[in-house]
Specification:
The complex is a heterotrimer.
Chain A (H helix, E strand, L loop, with lengths): L1 E12 L2 E12 L3 E5 L6 H8 L7 E6 L2 E2 L8 H4 L1 E3 L12 H7 L9 H6 L2 H20 L15 H14 L4 E5 L7 H16 L4 E5 L3 H7 L2 E6 L2 E6 L1 H6 L1 H9 L11
Parallel strand pairs in A: 3-8, 3-9, 6-7, 7-8
Antiparallel strand pairs in A: 1-2, 1-4, 4-5, 9-10
Helix pairs in contact in A: 3-6, 5-6
Chain B lengths: L1 H30 L6 H16 L8 H22 L9 H23 L4 E2 L8 E4 L2 E4 H23 L1 H11 L1 H6 L4 H25 L2 E2 L6 H12 L4 H21 L4 H16 L14
Antiparallel strand pairs in B: 1-4, 2-3
Helix pairs in contact in B: 1-5, 1-8, 1-9, 1-10, 2-3, 2-4, 2-8, 2-9, 3-8, 5-6, 6-8, 9-10, 9-11, 10-11
Chain C lengths: L9 H4 L5 H16 L6 H26 L7 H18 L4 H23 L4 H21 L1 H4 L5 E2 L3 E3 L2 E3 L5 H23 L2 H11 L1 H6 L4 H27 L1 E2 L6 H14 L4 H28 L10 H16 L3 H15 L22
Antiparallel strand pairs in C: 1-4, 2-3
The chains are: A alpha/beta, B mainly alpha, C mainly alpha.
């Protein structure tokens, strides 16, 4: 079944066409990767799915319903979680608190009952913490639970951000360059986690990634983009061998085999 | 005729607001800091001139005092950045706001301690002289204020467009990192911007003191200049002047045609309306964050 | 250094991290309750004033320290609290027990209404908008003279709780205890919010609005709630300030008051409840300290007493500059460092609290 579907989506920034008539759909239970040179429109597609941007044309459907009449803060409630390319964590809060923010959409209490900390609030807090501890266990974050984000190394922050998205318990997880800036070992961990997220948690993954090794090892399907247009779609093997893709990469002097780490 | 005089006096006030606002915007554009003490800078510039030229104090000739005051305020601005504000590099904007507010407190206290808290008049050659244009009688001070502001604006414009330093300042304000990579000494540019803001404040202060009295609380005029800067568009130099003129013109007309009490709140009401309708001012420059 | 082994989810939820902490705060509370038996009426008045400032400070702290929204106009909400409290008593003959919470709600309502258009504003624009609100409130009080008494001011009657009358000068101890009780309630509400979803949403909005939205936090609504709760607390503080001052005018809650309130929480330590109390002590005791110092200096030099107008603000500003440059976390930050030094003795390292600097934090693009 199609979990997410983009239909002829176009977005312009002034005169620049960032995304041009792009259509694709993500099946439930798969790992789908978007690849392409910088400026191909990958992150822009993410930002449209998160409703930070509104497409000029086309429609985006999630679970069979258009998400265009929802605001950005409604998106996680529908079941879509995301991470950011340049890590957007809450710097002056602990790892635990960051993950707990991920539980925001599951909160049913209002600020009045919270000000009095009624028993219902306490009960809800326990449930939130139970859910968050599972994420902490899954991502091996126990050692950092009470640490402030401001003092954490880059690799750990990247994992915390993934954990925060998982705390939402989404159906679809958008990972924006999950391995950028990570070492080979850390990238390997990310690959295992993505596998587990798909198999154990049953969460569909849509990711943007430059590291072709990671992409080909974890994704079921890949779509290549260049200059806002779709070039090719299929298995990682098919896309990498597509003449149009090779030309686009050589044209921008950016080999897909190199895997851009930055 | 009456209306014309209202307009001229409004414009003259507006020029002073505009010049203070110009100081804010200069600093904001270059360093993203907002100098809440700019009004107090103006007050200090006026008092320094007064201290040099008034016969009760040193009694130097007016023009020498003006040059000395402008020079001193420039040096003060430069040193302030060098000694205090440079340490703030990388701290939040709110911290900067609070720091400059505190700076304003200190300046006000120092001015009060040196020159006292009584309103004083600057012994200026343009104070209390009338000029006639046909049947129109205008204060010399008002005419001079408008003329000086126009000249200063043109000079600043040429400075930013024509001189190497001005272009470097523009570059540093648009992208600090890129400017730094291009070999522009961003930190020194920041200090120079503060010096320039000090100079503009001194000129505004001298003009302000020429058309009335001055006391240590005169710096609170800066709040009106804030309104002016926001109305014009924070981050735009022409906008600052435009905003100043708008606020300056509203006041005498509000005083004339609105019931008492309403005239003084008119600029702030306009500010609030402006923030709701067009938050980034008449001439705005703002982009959305990329994620 | 103490290690707390967490064995249940409640370990993170409860108010005190461990029993020793609970003990120290209980001791502090006991001292606070017994204070009137040890010091004279004048000092009890000052202590009451500290608590009132701390309440107002906590209100602003929730907005600035927790939600990251600057306000330079919070004295306006103190004014709303003070005026509405007295006016409800005067015009509707409501008892204090009703008029007091209602005054907070009135301030909260005003705050929410003002927040609605201003939540779109960021950083500096919000600061200037709130600055304008403070100036407008000042003028508005004068313009509404028939109700507010204009520049002549308004007289706050004695507080009456269950038939028990508390006069500001006649029963300073009772007033102190009443204010202490309200302070405790505010602290508890503050702490409860911080450990629940709303408090975390505040922090999310403060640290990254983009990310907060991606986590499902309605940013505009959260800011509005923050404004409303903040103004509620500050309004309560203002109502108490009105009773404490017994007569107040537009000048009581002017722009300088707004700015002092903001500077106060920065000196105390932004983002912490302790900070509000430390800052309040500075605001209340600094003028006392200055006058005592001045008297001793002038008498030592054999001069007649000289008054230097504006010296309080000057010294206050200088202290603040010092703190921002050398201890941005305020008095509380210094306190934590000293405490850690003794806890870890002799293993304290100098850069344990080195702060991370984030360069090029631009606000121009949002």
């Amino acid at each position: 079944m199609n979990l997410l579907e983009l239909r002829n989506v176009t977005l312009r920034f002034g005169g620049l066409v960032a995304v041009n008539d792009v259509s694709f759909s993500v099946e439930e239970g798969e790992v789908f990767a978007l690849v392409g040179p910088n400026g191909a429109g990958k992150s822009t597609i993410f930002n449209m799915i998160s409703r930070f941007y509104t497409p000029a044309q086309g429609d985006i459907h999630f679970k069979g319903q258009s998400i265009l009449d929802h605001q950005a803060h409604d998106i996680p409630r529908l079941g879509i979680a995301r991470t950011f390319q340049n890590i957007e964590l809450f710097e002056q809060a602990s790892v635990l608190q960051n993950l707990l923010v991920g539980r925001h959409t599951h909160s049913r209490t209002n600020f009045l009952s919270e000000a009095l900390f009624l028993p219902s609030v306490r009960e809800q807090e326990r449930r939130h913490r139970e859910a968050v501890e599972q994420v902490i266990d899954f991502l091996d974050l126990q050692a950092y639970r009470d640490k402030m984000i401001g003092g954490l190394p880059y690799g750990v922050r990247k994992v915390v951000e993934m954990g925060r998205a998982l705390a939402i318990q989404p159906n679809l997880l958008l990972l924006d360059e999950p391995a950028s800036g990570l070492s080979v070992e850390e990238t390997q961990d990310v690959a295992f986690w993505i596998e587990d997220i798909k198999r154990v948690m049953g969460i569909t993954v849509l990711m943007v990634e430059h590291d072709m090794h990671l992409v080909s090892s974890v994704s079921d399907r890949v779509m290549a983009l260049a200059d806002g247009r779709m070039l090719s779609i299929g298995t990682p093997q098919e896309v990498q061998n597509d003449p149009a893709v090779i030309e686009a990469y050589i044209g921008s002097s950016d080999s897909p085999e190199d895997g851009e780490a930055a | 005729m009456d209306i014309l005089q209202l307009i001229v006096s409004g414009l003259a006030n507006g020029c002073v607001y505009g010049l203070i606002a110009l100081g804010f915007v200069l600093i904001y554009k270059a360093t993203e800091a907002v100098n809440f003490a700019q009004g107090d800078f103006m007050m200090l510039g006026a008092f320094i001139t007064l201290g040099f030229t008034n016969t009760d104090y040193i009694g130097l000739p007016f023009w020498i005092s003006v040059i000395l005051a402008i020079g001193l305020m420039g040096i003060l601005g430069y040193l302030l950045d060098l000694v205090v504000l440079r340490r703030m590099f990388g701290q939040s904007q709110v911290a900067m706001v609070i720091l400059t507010i505190a700076l304003g407190f200190v300046i006000r206290f120092i001015a009060g301690a040196i020159w006292g808290h009584e309103p004083q008049a600057l012994e200026s050659p343009i104070a209390g002289v009338d000029v006639r244009f046909g049947g129109l009688v205008l204060g010399m001070d008002e005419v001079v204020i408008i003329v000086v502001t126009v000249i200063l604006t043109i000079l600043l414009y040429l400075f930013f467009i024509r001189t190497k330093l001005g272009v470097a300042m523009q570059a540093a304000s648009q992208n600090q990192l890129a400017a730094y990579y291009m070999g522009i000494p961003v930190k020194r540019i920041h200090s120079l911007i503060w010096a320039l803001a000090g100079i503009v404040a001194a000129i505004a202060g001298i003009l302000f003191a020429s058309k009335g009295t001055i006391d240590p609380t005169a710096g609170l005029l800066g709040i009106k200049a804030f309104a002016a800067a926001v109305i014009g568009g924070f981050g735009s130099l022409p906008g600052a002047l435009l905003g100043g003129l708008v606020v300056g013109l509203i006041e005498p007309f509000a005083a004339r045609y609105l019931p008492a009490g309403y005239s003084q709140i008119a600029p702030y009401l306009l500010l609030v309306v402006m923030l709701i309708v067009r938050p980034h001012g008449i001439l705005s420059q703002i982009q959305t964050k990329k994620v | 250094m103490r290690y707390v082994f967490k064995t249940s989810y409640d370990a993170d939820i409860r108010l005190f991290k461990h029993n020793a902490q609970a003990f120290w705060y209980l001791l502090l509370l006991t001292v606070a309750v017994l204070l009137p038996f040890f010091i004279n009426d004048f000092l009890i008045g000052e202590a009451t004033l500290v608590l009132i400032w701390a309440i107002c400070g906590m209100g602003l702290m929730l907005l600035v320290g927790q939600t990251g929204q600057a306000s330079l106009g919070h004295a306006a909400f103190m004014a709303i609290g003070a005026y509405s409290n007295v006016l409800y008593q005067q015009y509707f003959s409501l008892p204090f027990l009703l008029s007091f919470p209602l005054s907070g709600l009135t301030a909260a309502l005003a705050g929410a209404l003002i927040a609605m258009p201003t939540t779109r504003l960021h950083g500096i624009y919000l600061a200037i908008a709130t600055l304008a609100i403070s100036v407008l409130a000042d003028d508005l009080i004068v313009m509404l003279e028939p109700i507010t008494g204009g520049v002549a001011g308004l007289f706050a009657p004695d507080i009456e709780v269950f038939g028990y009358v508390i006069n500001r000068y006649g029963n300073p101890n009772e007033l102190y205890w009443l204010v202490l009780l309200i302070t405790l309630a505010v602290v508890l509400i503050y702490r409860n919010l911080l450990r629940s979803p709303t408090g975390r949403a505040f922090a999310a909005v403060r640290d990254s609005e983009v990310s907060a939205r991606a986590m499902g936090v309605n940013v505009a609504r959260t800011k509005m709630i923050a404004f409303a709760i903040s103004c509620f607390i500050t309004g309560l503080g203002g109502a108490l300030m009105g009773h404490f001052a017994t007569i107040f005018t537009n000048e009581t809650f002017n722009l300088i008051m707004s700015i002092t309130l903001l500077l106060m929480i920065v000196i105390g330590g932004l983002g912490t409840i302790h900070g509000a109390f430390f800052g309040a002590m500075v605001v209340v005791f600094l003028p006392l300290l200055i006058s005592v110092t001045r008297d001793s200096v002038t008498s030592a030099l054999g001069m007649s007493s000289v008054t230097v107008p504006g010296i309080e603000n000057g010294v206050f500003g200088a202290i603040l500059i010092g703190f921002i440059l050398f201890e941005p976390m305020g008095i509380y930050g210094r306190w934590v460092k000293i405490r850690t030094y003794f806890e870890l003795f002799p293993f304290y390292r100098k850069d344990m609290f080195r702060r991370q600097k984030s360069y090029l934090k631009t606000e121009r693009s949002r």
